[in-house]
Amino acid sequence: MSKMRKPLLVGFLILALVLSTIAAGCIGGGTTQTSPTQSPTGTQSPTPTQTTETITKTETKTMIQNQVFIRFAGWSAGETEMKNYQRMIELFEKENPNIKVKYEVITQMFHENILASFGAGVAPDVFYVDSSWAPIFIEKGALYPISELADESFINKFYPFLLEPFKKNGKLYGLPKDWSMLALFYNKKLFEQAGLTKPPETWDELLEYAKIITEKTGKPGLAIYLGGFNRYVPVAVSNGAPKPWFEKPEDASWFDNPVVRETLTWYINLYRKGKVEREKKGLPPYVVAPEDVGAGWLGDAFGQQKVAMVISGNWMIPFLADQFPNFKYGEDWDIAPLPAGKNGRVTMVYTVILGINSKTKHPKEAWKFVEFILGPRGQKELVVKAGQTLPSMKGFENDPDLWPQHRKTLSFKYDKMIVFLWGPKSGPLEAKFSDAMAAAMRGDMSIDEAIETMKQVVQEELSQ
């Protein structure tokens, strides 16, 4: 009996020793000891080198596990804007190593593509939303309420009039990254060649200048987009038309206003008479579209000095500085306020938020990125210093780093500044209005037919 107990007792002692060793290893973190040292109690302790290696491995593993990837989508006003955003993203990632941002540029039908990506379940975490499309995105529940992520003190730093398009039922769905206003850009050298000493004061004078410049220099005096309903609105409102607002089918009657019909006819005829009819007579056009002179957009046409005047926003300023450095502001070109109508001077205001996907898996990280871009530091670097557009956050109006071109546009006096928003379906309406206007400009339909088409668009869109 004693012979049997002795091996059994030895077995229990061995088992207890193994279990105690395992337990000690678990509590100690289970490090691998390749060069142990003896402790005063006789147990093996890891060297300082081993401890450092263990902590480093743990931190690296934790960092990999906590790495968050967010997608940021926007359109681009050219290579300049893309480069500026990429620079800011790299700075953000350096300061937030656990967050990686993938920048995606969508060049065509931006808002339609973003909405489609929601249906496919692949929408980006952060994306632009123009003021004209905000009501649709809010209605579809696509935007995370920014008022649930941002402190009120942070929100109050932004200009209130820029926030209005992004509000509904007491909630705010985004903060503007910047803003711009339409202004007249003109080539001083071509003006001099044409004998013109100052920019046009009225819309009629703008047309007169365009004709004179073409006659004297052989170059088109003015470039406009085919369509471009939002570019036409300042002409209508400055001549006494009410601001367009389409909320119900009956609001199509806006197009029956005599001032609207008169000014819309005038605007369409800028191209119809200035380009189409002139060329039919074998004469050089005094009004063109960018594509008519081999340019991708107004900024390119103006920068290449293929046209004397364009109406565009602040986003054109950094593009000219970056892509056409030898075309000098103040020396070769300048900016003036939009021409006045019979009832004063009116301009359009454009603003875009960095919206956060309501379905994002990383709302806190997405907000951290948005806050970085929109906050004082982001506005200073991306908007003020880079000269991208105008800062949407108050307090930078007199910043010494604000570009003189932007400072000048801020000095212009307007009777009305209209934020780009025509009602709950502004985006789709804008596109279809512009299609009808473009068809009339090309001569594919009469002006009356275009107006009737635009009325029908309102009735159909707002009956749904």
Plain-language structure description:
The protein is α/β, with parallel strands linked by helices. It folds into 2 domains: 65-179 and 351-401, 3-Layer(aba) Sandwich (D-Maltodextrin-Binding Protein, domain 2), CATH 3.40.190.10; 181-349 and 406-461, Periplasmic binding protein-like II (D-Maltodextrin-Binding Protein, domain 2, 3-Layer(aba) Sandwich), CATH 3.40.190. It has 18 helices and 15 strands. The protein has helices spanning 2-27, 48-66, 79-95, 110-119, 134-139, 152-155, 160-163, 188-193, 203-217, 229-238, 258-280, 298-303, 316-323, 363-374, 376-385, 404-411, 426-442, 447-461, and strands spanning 37-38, 44-45, 68-74, 99-105, 126-130, 167-168, 171-172, 176-181, 183-187, 222-223, 287-288, 309-312, 333-336, 346-356, 416-419. Helix 10 crosses helix 11 (258-280) and helix 14 packs across helix 15. The longest helix has 26 residues, at 2-27. It starts with a helix and ends with a helix.
Fill in the keyword field for this structure.
single chain, six-stranded mixed sheet, 2 domains, globular, disordered N terminus, D-Maltodextrin-Binding Protein, domain 2, five-stranded mixed sheet, 464 residues, alpha/beta
CATH class of the largest domain: Alpha Beta
**Could you please say which CATH topology of the largest domain applies here?**
D-Maltodextrin-Binding Protein, domain 2
Mean pLDDT across all residues, rounded?
A: 88
Rg (C-alpha, Å): 31 Å
Give the number of helices.
18
CATH architecture of the largest domain: 3-Layer(aba) Sandwich
Tell me, briefly, the overall form: globular
Helix content: 40-55%
Number of domains: 2
How is the main sheet built? 6 strands, mixed
> In terms of per-residue confidence, which ranges show pLDDT below 50 for 5 or more consecutive residues?
1-49, 58-63
Total beta strand runs: 15
CATH homology group of the largest domain: Periplasmic binding protein-like II
Strand content: 5-15%
Helix- and strand-based class?
alpha/beta
Q: Could you tell me how far the N terminus lies from the C terminus, measured between alpha carbons in angstroms? A: 96 Å
